[in-house]
Amino acid sequence: MSEGLIETIKEPKTKKKTKKPPMYKVYLLNDDYTTMDFVVYVLQEVFGKPYEEAVQIMLHVHRRGMGLCGVYTKEIAETKVETVHRLARANQFPLKCYMERE
Ligand code: TYC
Question: Of 50, 43, 55, nearest to 80 (Cα)?
Fold first, then answer.
């Protein structure tokens, strides 16, 4: 067998493409006016948190100024941020949240 031929019989590429999409962290910010109940409601409805966890996250934000609500792909994170702001405005609360690339 010539060297040239050996070179052409390469192992097939078995490595799968495992490129993961960039992920975005969504945070809630504290303020003095939004009610605790509303924040707990948002964490349950928008971020799918069970009640007990929603209360813990809300208290963390209340005490520390901000807190992580979830990690999502770009489009989902953008939609969560918009939904929070829309719900807050509709209920006349100044609640803000933001997203940050991981
Ligand atoms: N600090 C608010 C209060 O005392 C409660 C609150 C918690 C507001 C979390 C926003 O993201 C927030 N009513």
Answer: 43
